[in-house]
Queue: 4 jobs
Job 1
Amino acid sequence: MEKKSRVIKYQSLRKKISNMDVYSFVEQEDVAKNLPPVSHLSPEENPLPPSSDGIKKNTLSVTLDELIASHESYSQESEKKEMKERYKQKQKERKRREHTLTQGGILLAVFIPLCLIVVAFIILFVTGVF
């Protein structure tokens, strides 16, 4: 008996759902009555503070000159960021090269005189001085 009453009870809702238009932009009364009104929200509960930096204008309400100016400023900012990144990358690469050259310079400064001393001892040994 309970199943029959449930079927009858929700029959109108099932019919409403099956006849629902997916692309409807009209707010239905039964949906709106379940939502809390925005004016009743306290400042703590309101997700967007009144001075939030949201979208002030959309691209349909902006003039073409403003749109071009904003695009130019955006492209200039992105170029600046890209140049900074390239500069940082080149600085890192230069420091790495200087570091390896310094290590290589120390190696050469020690290795060449050591080789010269060894060659001098070999020459002296071969000539019979020792």
Job 2
Amino acid sequence: MEYRDAVQKVINTYGKDIIDNHFCFYNIVSDYVGSSIYSKSLASLSFKINKTLDLRSIVLNNSVGEANDYLSKCYREKDYGCTFEEFKKAIVPLVVALSPNEGLIIESSKEIDPNDSKSVTIHRSKRRNIDIKETDNASKEAIKQDLRFNKIMVTANCQKLTIITSKSKTFDISKENTDGNLNGVDYQIGKHNTLNVNISDLEGSYILSIPDKQYISFDINQTQGDLFISGNNLDELKCKKIKINSESGEVALNVKTDSCKISGNNGDVKVNGSYGDLEIKKYRANVYGNIRFASNEPSYNFTCNVTYGSIYVYIKDFPSRIGRVLFIKRKSYFGGKMISNKYLSCYVWTIEGEIELMK
């Protein structure tokens, strides 16, 4: 499928809002164009341009003349690594799809030599209608189903990874503090509605924005770098089951989950939110927490094993304080307490450090 047709098909299927999810939009268009090298290059170029310029805002919030002047200025002032003709071909289909008035398109009225003129002309012409064939319905429904993923698997080797929820219905991956490329990022939506993300960029910091809903499972394996997981606006991210292995780097969570397991080598752990079962096993780390135990499980479990490091956790409704007694550092606690008519089983210890469970 040609690039122009692929863009129109994606917007017909998902609506104009998907253009705001740059990474998701780019990948779906790339899937539609298949093995066409030229169409894939246009998709990649449009991703770079749209992420930098926000074409949706330019087209919807300006007159035809204002949009024309602004786009011309942008091409002159910034190096997009392409000719004017490639710049034009990359953005024409997006402007066509976004146009608030029927027939508003962006194109040149004549062939333009980029060395002579870099003006982008917007005018009105009759837009052709693109009908979605009946044979496309199956693939449309399959992709819609794929985007409703409820499981996430991440393999990351980067400086920092932030996973946060948003009000959007689709997901987006971006690089912090830059509009740089995402060459170190790969993803696919596999079987059983699982989003698989692979990030390999030692110097990069990335944000994975996902829809705000209840997920079935998270499985995260981070070789190096910090990991931050939270809901939007400091709310809890909701997931039935979370498993994290972080070999080197800080882990910070604000979640609501029935089961959470955190393992790895070095790096502090900071836990906030609501848990049914919480298990932390690290070699060299300090553990900090402000948590509560609340789930539909018949009982609760808190396991925290740290070889070198201290454990300071506040547990809501915990009936007593466990920790320092005069000048003696407590290094272990095995026992249980009743919380809201459910039994909380605790298995907490450290070799070099101290523990303090607070009510």
Job 3
Amino acid sequence: MEDLELARETLKNIKYLKSKYPRWRIEELADIFEISEMYDIPLKEFYSYSHGYFLNGGHGFGFKILKKPLLTNSETHYEPSDSVWHMRVDNGGCGRLNFCGSYDSHLLYGDKTNDVWERFNDTILAYHPYDYDRLNKEYIFSVQNGYELYKDFDEIYTSTKTEFEECIKEYRVRELEEKLAKLKGEQ
């Protein structure tokens, strides 16, 4: 009889939780509530994926909350615990191409644009990751520091994109001036 009552109560609780939190699987709710409460992250700001939780947004950059994140080329050799939540930030496999607008992506590579890219990465490092992969531009943060970066990221992204666009404009003006000079020389 005791197990019957427990089963009925469990089913009642599951029905309640499924109706209140339809975006989440029941098995995830304990983690979701823990993350939300521990790090003051509203539930609407993240969603689940196979090994943890993604924060919404990021302009193509990934902000993932998970345990024991790994990097391919660790700089600090930090050993993340599988009992502590971390935030792994990556460039979604695109790097500076995340800043590509309507112009050709090859224009994002050059002396000035390389400087913009390095400043962007230095800005990310200013949020004090535990570890990072300089080659692949992947970072492991405490959830607190990663979430601070996430909250500031729209502004960081927008200012970096503006800097890239200014470099592209300069390049295009120079390119058009060279073409114009060449055309004038042909007359």
Job 4
Amino acid sequence: MNTLYILEDDPLLGPTMQDLVELTQPDCKIELFTFFADFIAAIDANPPGAAIVDLNVPDRAGPDIVTELRRVFPGRPVFVYSGDADSLMRVRNLNLPRVTTGFKTESFNLVNDWLGHAFH
């Protein structure tokens, strides 16, 4: 069974993203996190196969999230999204392998496509 961690603090968007994954990947175990510290601790303890990450959560914001995530989660597929165009462009400019980015307004369509490739 594949595992996926989602970092999203919005009380509506997080569960909606989780529902989307469950619909498209029924054999996937999903854990939802609101705080970056909890997310990173879970990855350290039990790394998932992939992750979906919002760039703005209560205890961390911006491209540093991706830099820290890549340090503890190298080589795994990550989908990063944000409503902050500048932060998202800074992540894109890092040219990290297996990191896909998208604007929050288009994230559901992009995540659906990304999921088809993430666990392969």
